[in-house]
Amino acid sequence: PTTAPCTPGNVNVVEASGAGGVSYVEIKDLSTSGVAVADRFAVPVHLVSTKEVGAAPAGMPTDVAIGHTEGVTVQGRYLYVADGPHGLSVWPIANASGVATDNLHLVANTLMDEYPVDHEHSTEIGNAPGINGQDHAYYATFYGKYAIVADGSNGLTVYDTSVPADTTTWGHVVANIGNTTSNKPPLGRASSVALWKHNGKIYAVVAAGPYGISVVDMTGLLVNGVTPGMTLIKTFEPIKLEEEAGVLKVGKADGKSVDVKIIGDYAYVSYDSFGLVAYKMADLIQPISQVNPMCTDPTKLFDANAGLDCRPTAVARYKLQADPLHPEFATLDGGAQYMTAQYFPADTYIRTGAGGGLVYLDKPRLLFYVAYANGGVIKLDWSDPANPVLLQHKDTVGKAVDTAIANGRVYVADYGGGVVVFK
Questions:
Q1: Exposed (0-12), middle (13-18) or buried (19+): which is 189, by Cβ within 10 Å?
Q2: Residue 128's pLDDT is what?
Q3: Which of 56, 110, 259, 349 pairs as cysteine with 338 (C-beta 3.0–4.6 A)?
């Protein structure tokens, strides 16, 4: 009530800027002409989510906010955080000797700009050949000089990393599969991809969003150098069995797939509302005509009305809300997002906990750390492909969307919650 809007230096507006923090704004001049926009306002106080100082778009020092965190990964002794409009930031997680530290501080960041100048497929300069519309690159994996990108509704886009990016010739864009001008892209909205080598061939398994799972033979491109050299084997939504009026009904998974990991001869796929499913790779790469001669379209493997179902059968499925051993999670809000796997072969030793002793493994052990959105983070023992077992569940303050592992820590991209670290 005592605010004096016309008093110079007086704060007129307290602005909640979401993950950008809180800004105290002084309105200096409401003129619509003759006064530069930057001179019409002042921000005498800006409170952000960290005490770190980074680089603003002009290169000048600026406070760094963390709060749109959608991805984390570890390379060497550094944690790389993808933070939406705040760009990419780098945080040491170990000292030069490799000893882990939990006192994280920013050492580098891209210039924070919601509208970066680096090119995309769809900009004022035009599109890459054969790729239409705005792309949304979510994930990438590498094979030699090739970067295979899960490119949203464009499917898979392959880049030659040995060729400098040039938006005049587009020579760095090698091939694409899944782009279409229709409303039904054959690879759905690709959000993750993993490669599998077998008998001289290379296959890609794609998390295809609401379209489920796609399998692509990439041998022609990655092995033989043929362009485009990629063949779609199948796109399908996992089998879902539901009881309706006492009758078991065969349907398809709800929600959308998010991430895929291939460990050994099995593929593990996360779903935002269906949970996690595991498949034998042999079943995924099997031609649909071998399953049923009536199957001819790799994007149409299931038609309940026609009695057609050529989809592979999952080895196992896990959903936290349906775990019979943990009924306390039945009403938990959240679904599986991106995940990280740890594989320990048999006849090896692992250390249990910080400073713990060594334990001998007489059989392989496979652990998954799964970001479970509003449900926090879960740790699964999936050593037996047919029997995933929940080991631990931890809440976070935001929405867990990705995980990374290093030095006995689990780093969680927690969206509005920033970065969460668990031991």
A1: buried
A2: 77
A3: 259
pLDDT of residue 6: 65
- Compute mean pLDDT per 10 residues along the chain, 423 residues long, and list them: 65 80 81 74 84 85 87 95 88 91 91 59 68 78 95 92 86 88 81 96 97 96 92 95 82 94 97 96 96 92 91 96 95 95 90 73 93 96 96 95 94 93 93
Strand partners, 174: none
Structure tokens at 394: 């931890």
Which DSSP state fits 94? B
- Tokens matching residue 257: 């797939």
Q: What is the pLDDT of residue 208?
A: 96
Question: Strand order in 201-207's β-sheet?
Answer: 192-198, 201-207, 213-217, 231-236
Copy the structure tokens of residue 332: 């938990």
Tokens of 96: 């030069």
Residue 389: CB atoms within 10 Å: 13
**Which is nearest to 380 in space by CA: 255, 263, 256?**
263
* Whole-number Å distance between alpha carbons of 61 and 48: 14
- Rounded distance between C-alpha atoms, residue 50 and residue 371, angstroms: 23
Cα separation, 41 vs 9, in Å, equals 10
> What are the tokens at 80?
């790389």
